[in-house]
Specification:
This protein has helices at 2-17, 41-45, 63-72, and strands spanning 37-38, 48-51, 57-59. By secondary structure, it is α+β, with helices and mostly antiparallel strands.
Length: 84
């Protein structure tokens, strides 16, 4: 039971941490909060931004619009289950 609590706390921290932009101007993944993203020139030229950890991705044709869209996606909300 204790392991599930720690996993939920880790997930909460990752998602909340992803809500702020990093040094490159990207928010973390909306699904898992990871900052391990595929967003180099090749991926933007090919029309996608992708999370390496959970594989969540968005596609588009304009790199600037994709970055804006990525940062505006609502970060996943959830409720922690706290055992009593």
């Amino acid at each position: 039971m204790r392991e599930k609590e720690f996993e939920q706390i880790r997930l909460a921290q990752a998602i909340f941490a992803g809500a702020e932009k990093d040094k490159d101007g990207y928010c973390g993944c909306p699904e898992c909060g990871s900052r391990d993203l595929l967003h180099d020139g090749n991926s933007l030229d090919n029309g996608y931004i992708k999370c390496i950890d959970c594989r969540f991705a968005i596609t588009g044709t304009d790199p600037y619009e994709m970055i804006l869209c990525w940062n505006l996606i609502n970060r996943k909300s959830f409720q922690l289950k706290i055992p009593f």
